[in-house]
Request: fold
Amino acid sequence: MTPSPAERIRLAERLDGVAPLLLVSDLDELRRLIAAPQRLPPTSSAPTPEATDDTLLIDSARSTARSRDREVNLTRLEHDLLACLTAEPIRVWSYAELHRSVWRDEGLRRRSDVQSLVKRLRRKLTELGTGVTIDAVRGVGFRLTDHRQPRIGGS
Reply:
Protein backbone atom coordinates (compact mmCIF):
# COMPACT_ATOMS: atom_id res chain seq x y z
CA MET A 1 0.00 0.00 0.00
CA THR A 2 1.27 3.46 -0.91
CA PRO A 3 1.71 5.80 2.08
CA SER A 4 -0.34 8.99 2.04
CA PRO A 5 1.42 12.36 1.64
CA ALA A 6 0.77 13.05 5.34
CA GLU A 7 2.49 9.77 6.28
CA ARG A 8 5.45 10.71 4.08
CA ILE A 9 5.71 14.09 5.80
CA ARG A 10 5.66 12.45 9.24
CA LEU A 11 8.39 10.01 8.17
CA ALA A 12 10.53 12.81 6.74
CA GLU A 13 10.15 14.80 9.97
CA ARG A 14 11.27 11.83 12.05
CA LEU A 15 14.35 11.27 9.85
CA ASP A 16 15.18 14.96 9.35
CA GLY A 17 18.88 15.52 9.89
CA VAL A 18 19.68 11.82 10.29
CA ALA A 19 20.63 11.14 6.69
CA PRO A 20 19.79 12.16 3.14
CA LEU A 21 16.24 11.09 2.40
CA LEU A 22 14.36 10.41 -0.83
CA LEU A 23 10.66 9.65 -0.53
CA VAL A 24 8.94 7.96 -3.45
CA SER A 25 5.39 6.71 -3.74
CA ASP A 26 6.30 3.29 -5.11
CA LEU A 27 9.06 1.19 -6.63
CA ASP A 28 8.18 2.30 -10.17
CA GLU A 29 8.73 5.94 -9.24
CA LEU A 30 12.13 5.05 -7.81
CA ARG A 31 13.07 3.20 -10.99
CA ARG A 32 12.04 6.23 -13.11
CA LEU A 33 14.19 8.51 -10.95
CA ILE A 34 17.20 6.22 -11.18
CA ALA A 35 16.82 5.81 -14.94
CA ALA A 36 16.37 9.55 -15.59
CA PRO A 37 19.46 11.25 -17.05
CA GLN A 38 21.19 13.30 -14.41
CA ARG A 39 22.10 16.89 -15.24
CA LEU A 40 24.43 18.72 -12.93
CA PRO A 41 24.22 22.50 -12.63
CA PRO A 42 27.24 24.37 -14.04
CA THR A 43 27.96 25.94 -10.63
CA SER A 44 27.71 24.67 -7.10
CA SER A 45 24.46 26.55 -6.43
CA ALA A 46 21.13 25.00 -7.39
CA PRO A 47 19.36 26.60 -10.35
CA THR A 48 16.28 28.71 -9.66
CA PRO A 49 13.11 27.00 -10.91
CA GLU A 50 11.31 28.91 -13.64
CA ALA A 51 7.58 29.60 -13.62
CA THR A 52 6.19 30.00 -17.11
CA ASP A 53 2.63 30.78 -16.01
CA ASP A 54 0.89 31.68 -12.76
CA THR A 55 2.17 28.49 -11.15
CA LEU A 56 3.29 28.82 -7.56
CA LEU A 57 6.77 27.34 -7.14
CA ILE A 58 8.29 26.67 -3.75
CA ASP A 59 12.07 26.55 -3.67
CA SER A 60 12.90 24.73 -0.44
CA ALA A 61 16.65 25.10 -0.88
CA ARG A 62 16.39 28.89 -1.01
CA SER A 63 13.23 29.15 1.12
CA THR A 64 11.38 31.22 -1.45
CA ALA A 65 8.06 31.17 -3.26
CA ARG A 66 7.91 32.28 -6.88
CA SER A 67 5.32 33.02 -9.53
CA ARG A 68 6.26 34.39 -12.95
CA ASP A 69 8.85 37.10 -12.35
CA ARG A 70 7.97 37.69 -8.69
CA GLU A 71 9.64 36.04 -5.73
CA VAL A 72 9.23 36.34 -1.97
CA ASN A 73 11.47 35.07 0.79
CA LEU A 74 9.87 32.74 3.30
CA THR A 75 10.72 32.23 6.95
CA ARG A 76 11.13 28.63 8.08
CA LEU A 77 7.63 28.65 9.57
CA GLU A 78 6.08 30.19 6.43
CA HIS A 79 7.88 27.64 4.25
CA ASP A 80 6.78 24.72 6.42
CA LEU A 81 3.16 25.93 6.49
CA LEU A 82 3.07 26.38 2.72
CA ALA A 83 4.71 22.99 2.16
CA CYS A 84 2.18 21.38 4.48
CA LEU A 85 -0.80 23.00 2.75
CA THR A 86 0.47 22.16 -0.73
CA ALA A 87 1.03 18.51 0.18
CA GLU A 88 -2.76 18.04 0.14
CA PRO A 89 -4.22 21.28 -1.24
CA ILE A 90 -7.92 20.41 -1.05
CA ARG A 91 -7.71 19.04 2.47
CA VAL A 92 -8.83 21.15 5.40
CA TRP A 93 -6.03 21.16 7.97
CA SER A 94 -7.01 21.56 11.62
CA TYR A 95 -5.16 23.95 13.90
CA ALA A 96 -3.66 20.98 15.80
CA GLU A 97 -2.46 19.30 12.57
CA LEU A 98 -0.87 22.53 11.35
CA HIS A 99 0.78 23.10 14.72
CA ARG A 100 2.23 19.56 14.68
CA SER A 101 3.47 19.93 11.09
CA VAL A 102 4.90 23.45 11.36
CA TRP A 103 5.98 23.83 14.99
CA ARG A 104 6.35 20.07 15.54
CA ASP A 105 4.31 20.09 18.74
CA GLU A 106 0.69 19.78 19.78
CA GLY A 107 -0.04 23.48 20.42
CA LEU A 108 -3.74 22.83 20.84
CA ARG A 109 -4.33 26.06 22.72
CA ARG A 110 -2.26 28.31 20.48
CA ARG A 111 -4.55 29.04 17.55
CA SER A 112 -3.21 32.59 17.48
CA ASP A 113 0.20 31.27 16.36
CA VAL A 114 -1.39 29.60 13.34
CA GLN A 115 -3.63 32.59 12.58
CA SER A 116 -0.71 35.01 12.72
CA LEU A 117 1.43 32.85 10.45
CA VAL A 118 -1.44 32.39 7.97
CA LYS A 119 -1.94 36.17 7.88
CA ARG A 120 1.73 36.78 7.02
CA LEU A 121 1.77 34.02 4.40
CA ARG A 122 -1.45 35.29 2.79
CA ARG A 123 0.17 38.71 2.42
CA LYS A 124 3.16 37.16 0.65
CA LEU A 125 0.96 35.06 -1.66
CA THR A 126 -0.96 38.22 -2.58
CA GLU A 127 2.36 39.96 -3.26
CA LEU A 128 3.19 37.19 -5.75
CA GLY A 129 -0.03 37.89 -7.64
CA THR A 130 -1.24 34.31 -7.87
CA GLY A 131 -4.82 33.24 -7.28
CA VAL A 132 -3.55 30.90 -4.59
CA THR A 133 -4.53 31.79 -1.05
CA ILE A 134 -5.23 30.24 2.31
CA ASP A 135 -8.92 30.02 3.17
CA ALA A 136 -10.25 29.65 6.68
CA VAL A 137 -12.80 26.93 7.28
CA ARG A 138 -14.79 28.17 10.25
CA GLY A 139 -14.33 26.09 13.37
CA VAL A 140 -11.94 23.65 11.68
CA GLY A 141 -8.77 25.22 10.27
CA PHE A 142 -7.35 26.19 6.89
CA ARG A 143 -6.91 24.94 3.34
CA LEU A 144 -5.01 26.11 0.29
CA THR A 145 -7.29 27.33 -2.49
CA ASP A 146 -6.60 28.39 -6.04
CA HIS A 147 -9.23 31.00 -6.82
CA ARG A 148 -8.31 30.94 -10.52
CA GLN A 149 -9.75 27.44 -10.85
CA PRO A 150 -13.54 27.13 -11.23
CA ARG A 151 -15.10 25.22 -8.38
CA ILE A 152 -16.81 21.95 -9.12
CA GLY A 153 -20.07 21.39 -7.28
CA GLY A 154 -22.02 23.74 -5.08
CA SER A 155 -19.84 24.96 -2.19
